[in-house]
Structure formats: C-alpha cells, structure tokens
Amino acid sequence: MDPVTPPVTDPTALPAVDALAPYDAVLLYSFGGPNAPEDVLPFLRNVTAGKNIPDERLAEVAEHYHHFGGRSPINDQNLALQAALRAELDRRGLTTPVVWGNRNWEPYTTQALAEARALGAERVLAVVTSAYSSYSGCRQYRENLWASLEELGSQDAATDGGAPLVVDKVRSYFNHPGFVAANVDAVVEAYGRLQAEHPDAAWPRLLFVTHSIPDTMEEASVVAGASYREQHLDVGRSVAAAAAERLGRPLEWDLVYCSRSGPPSQPWLEPDVNDHLRALHAAGTTSVVLSPIGFVSDHMEVAFDLDTEALETAQELGMVAVRAASVGTREPFVRGLVDLLLERAAVQRALDAGAEPPAEATVGALPPFRSVCVPGCCRQRAGVDSGIPAACSTDPWS
Ligand SMILES: CC1=C(CCC(=O)O)c2cc3nc(cc4[nH]c(cc5[nH]c(cc1n2)c(C)c5CCC(=O)O)c(CCC(=O)O)c4C)C(CCC(=O)O)=C3C
Ligand SMILES: [Fe+2]
C-alpha cells in the first residue's frame, strides 16, 4: 500500500489559534482605594480587617487620604492600565476581555469575577498589580480570589449550570524584562531631570524604594524562591547596571523602605527612606534619585510617603532629590505584561498536555518565579498555616 500522503494545508486557511487559550478572560487584580472622603474609613476597615494595625496608625493613614481630598489616585491608574492592556491586546489581534477588580474597594473581586462570568469566561487569567512575591503581593490576593470563587459557588460546580470558573495567575514579574526596562527608562529620565533642574548638583545616589513588610512576612516569603528583599535587590542590581550604562557613569545605590505600619514593637524591614536620607546626609551625600521599584503606579504610598514625606525630609536636609516615575502605563511594562499573559497561557497549555513548558523570560540572577504557587508559598509567618485556602496553587485544597 502506498503511504498515506498528508493533505497539504494552507496555514492561513486554518482558524487562528487563540494565543491566550485556555484563558477566555483576563483579570487585572489590584489593591483598590477610596474615591471620595466618605470611602476612606470603610476602605481602611477593609484593608485592616483581622490585621494588627494600631488605631493611631489608621488615623494617620486616613489623614494621608484626606490630604488628597479623600481620593486615592490608584483607581484611575488601574483604569488607565486596563485601557493600555486592552489596546496592546487589540494591537496583537486578541479580543479576550480584560476585567478589573480590587481586594479592598469597588469593583470588588467578586464583582469582577461575576463580570468575567457574564462575558462567558470559564478560565480567567489574573495579573496582580504587585510585581513581588510575599504574603501582601501574592498569597493575600490568592486568598481573596478563593473566597470570591466560593461566594460565586465556583469551586466545585458552577451554580449557573456552566463549567466551574477557574482562576490562574501570572508569576511574580519583578524580574521580567518589561518591568525592569520600564524602571530603567524612568531612572534615566529622573537623572536627566535632576541634572536639568540642578546643574550644579553632585552626581546623585540612587535609592530604590519599596513597601516595608514585617520581618516575619519577609522570612516566610523565601519559600517562593528568594525572599521579598532579595527579589528587590535583584531588580536593583539589574536597573542600576542598565541605567549606569545608559548614563555613562557608575551608580551607587541602596534599597530602602516606606509605609511601615503595625505596632512599634514589631520589627519591619529597614531602613526607612527618611532615616536613610538623614544617614546619607550625615555622611555627606547631597543629591539623590528615588526610584519606587516596589510599586507599579504612583498611588497613595508614592504620592504621600515619597512625594510628600520623603521629598520634604530631603528638602529639610538641604538635599537635592527627584523621584523617578513608577512603571504605570509605560510601553515596555504594558508590552511586557501582555508577553507575560501569552507566556502564562503557553505554560498552561503545556501543563494541561503534560508537555515541556516554554522558556520564561527573565533578567537578573534569579530564576522565573513559579506560575503555580507551591504549598506554603508566601505565608504571613514561616511554617504557620493560617488554614485560609488560596487559589492558584498546588495547596491541597486547590
Ligand atoms: C508589600 C505591600 C504592597 C506592595 C504590593 C502591592 O501593591 O500589593 C502594598 C501596597 C499597597 N498598600 C496600600 C494601602 C495600605 N496598605 C496598608 C497596610 C499594609 N500594606 C502592607 C504591604 C504592602 N502594601 C502590609 C504588610 C500592611 C500591613 C497590614 C497587612 O498585612 O495588610 C494599609 C493600612 C494602613 C497602614 O498601615 O498603612 C493601607 C491603607 C495601597 C493602596 C494605596 C492607595 O490607596 O493608593 C497599596 C497599593
Ligand atoms: Fe506565592
């Protein structure tokens, strides 16, 4: 018998393979913030429910919001990022809907998942507005996702007769080339701005700033591969090296922290940005650039803790200081996020097929973080199981 000759097919005649399959919706998943003065207290109650935050700290943080008319910039920034992701997906011919939801304010997680469901989604790919892995940037989001899926009756069987809704998430993307490149651009621009505005200033020292977390949370974060602090140090090395090359001069840099809360007796990551400015000043530094690599947009922690407080500290000390922009909707970041969505879809197709997963893009010394969290990933305290289930992991309940 003649061997069967396979039919010659015209690839352009085949239906386009959906590059985001198996996902049929994307969830932009964020922290949330108040839109008006009357939102401030209920928002803070949502954020701090079950947390050991002293009343004095809460009153102080409420003042930060009222200082800006009771409205956080974060929601507008997320709407802008949602629109930018939409535009980048459209540019690549992808029509998958992008919904937006928050852990702590409207539109809440459950609303966003219900919206995805109403659009016909069965498998949602979440991207959180936190680049680093720790309880605050990973597991807490996953716990909230689990709770919302429960609320929607989607864990075991869908109540609306369809397939159960499943949510996966993209890996922590601190060491993704797009996130790093956007931070490099912002640092280079900030050096340009500082030199233009203060031509006589000394060559600035570079301070990378991130959100402080309790030492216990830092210790627990290492389960993901490298601790929260080590993840930032890796990004700091990458950004400083690339920016120094572009600027044609070496850069000296430090990693510092902002927005500490919790009782004073509880140790959190240090040094605080203000304390560090004082120490640098005492040691003779006169000029700094602050790069908020810990945050993806210029939300309240940036607008208050850096632009209001830290820049005031620098001014009091007579130091020249400029804040670099956060990645926001910068093109390398948005393109990188869409690359990540596509990469995560390819990873999932390989996992579902038992095939070799594709290579995952990184820069720096650390490996790509896991797409599916391991049991015990990103707890509040190392070795202590809170018993709270979390989505997007190989924990026994998922
Ligand atoms: C690591 C991290 C990020 C970065 C990663 C990410 O982006 O997720 C982040 C982001 C944010 N944090 C924010 C606001 C707040 N965070 C608080 C409290 C806390 N944050 C923590 C950590 C983080 N937080 C921790 C360990 C606490 C203690 C209580 C707890 O264990 O949760 C509190 C309570 C009052 C206070 O103590 O400050 C508020 C109001 C906003 C919104 C800003 C806006 O409205 O524009 C954003 C984006
Ligand atoms: Fe994790």
Automatic annotation (TrEMBL):
Residue numbers binding Fe(2+): 211, 301
Keyword presence, Methyltransferase: no
Pathway: Porphyrin-containing compound metabolism; protoheme biosynthesis
Any single Gene Ontology cellular-component annotation: cytoplasm
Catalytic reactions on record: Fe-coproporphyrin III + 2 H(+) = coproporphyrin III + Fe(2+)
Enzyme class: lyase
Lineage top rank: taxon: Bacteria
Keywords: Cytoplasm, Heme biosynthesis, Iron, Lyase, Metal-binding, Porphyrin biosynthesis
Principal cellular location given in the protein's record: cytoplasm
Annotated Gene3D superfamilies: 3.40.50.1400
Positions with a binding annotation for Fe-coproporphyrin III: 72, 141
Matching Pfam families: Ferrochelatase (PF00762)
MF annotations from Gene Ontology: ferrochelatase activity; metal ion binding
GO BP: heme biosynthetic process
The keyword Metal-binding is annotated on this UniProt entry: yes
Subcellular location: Cytoplasm
Family under the similarity heading: Belongs to the ferrochelatase family.
Biological role stated in the UniProt entry: Involved in coproporphyrin-dependent heme b biosynthesis. Catalyzes the insertion of ferrous iron into coproporphyrin III to form Fe-coproporphyrin III.
Name assigned to this protein: Coproporphyrin III ferrochelatase
Source lineage: Bacteria, Bacillati, Actinomycetota, Actinomycetes, Micrococcales
Name of encoding gene: cpfC
